[in-house]
Design brief:
With 248 residues, the protein is α/β, with parallel strands linked by helices. It has nine helices and nine strands. It has helices at 2-24, 27-36, 70-78, 91-96, 108-121, 144-148, 176-181, 208-223, 232-240; strands spanning 40-44, 60-63, 84-86, 101-103, 124-126, 137-138, 152-160, 187-192, 226-227. Residues 59-160 form the Phospholipid/glycerol acyltransferase domain.
């Protein structure tokens, strides 16, 4: 315990440096600079873009949700900024994010329109679980993403820490990245799993729920995580120990 408190001031300094690397430096040198300051990063399965560059709509990257920096790690792997859909990101996190963030409203019609518009403009990242989960489980995927895109690629993201969790069950979510990067040697794994086969898309005759469940299973297998039917609300109900209302 004493060692933890002795390290904490250094951890805060490391966190500030690592966060600023993501904000200030271009993607091409971010990973090298981060590695110098102790961040371990591993990526695999990245596809080579089509030679002709022709693409009517963007690729929808369907990611697992471990910490708030998931979309930034995805962009670092792709070496380009990919806009990310968010639900309850703090204003501070939105301001310092090195990528574009688009807040959803949980209104199905409005969110569908927003996602369709963004996909017409280019690539997009989404975390269908709707909230972060630090345990080796995947929450139920919202099927909305599967109803709007056929060109999808699941991306398995996993974060490992040694001292401080990079996610909080309740409280100040904007501190999550600070806690994650304050670890002595935090690590991130980004694995691209290839395009979703046409027979497992809406164009192939599948329903949105079937597509969402297939993608969840594929990601669960890659990470060796258990797939669940729990929703974001279920998670907070269990944490509260009642009907979802956290006692003051």
């Amino acid at each position: 315990m004493l060692a933890f408190f002795l390290f904490l001031p250094l951890g805060v300094i490391l966190s500030v440096i690592r966060i600023n690397i993501g904000i200030v430096l271009p993607f091409k040198i971010q990973l090298l600079a981060a590695a110098i300051f102790g961040l371990r990063y591993r990526t695999s399965g990245l596809r080579t873009p089509p030679a002709d560059g022709k693409q009517r709509r963007g690729v929808l990257y369907v990611c697992t949700h471990r910490t708030l920096v998931d979309p930034i790690m995805l962009s670092s792997a792709l070496q380009k900024p990919v806009p990310a859909l968010t639900y309850s990101l703090s204003r501070l996190s939105e301001l310092i994010a090195p990528i574009k963030t688009v807040r959803l409203t949980r209104d199905r019609a409005r969110d569908a329109e927003t996602m369709s518009r963004l996909l017409r403009q280019g690539d997009l990242a989404v975390c269908p679980e709707g909230t972060t989960c630090r345990e080796p489980y995947l929450l139920r995927f919202s099927p909305l993403f599967a109803e709007l895109a056929d060109d999808m690629e699941p991306v398995a993201l996993d974060a490992q820490v040694t001292a401080l969790y990079g996610t909080t069950a309740s409280g100040h979510k904007w501190l999550d990245p600070v806690a994650f990067f304050a670890n002595p040697a935090p690590s991130y794994r980004v694995e691209f799993l290839g395009a979703v086969p046409r027979e497992w898309t809406r164009a192939g005759g599948r329903t949105g729920v079937e597509v969402a469940n297939w993608v969840q299973r594929r990601l669960g297998e890659a990470l060796e995580f258990e797939c669940t039917g729990l929703t974001r609300r279920d998670k907070y109900m269990m944490l509260a120990g009642n009907d979802g209302v956290v006692a003051k």
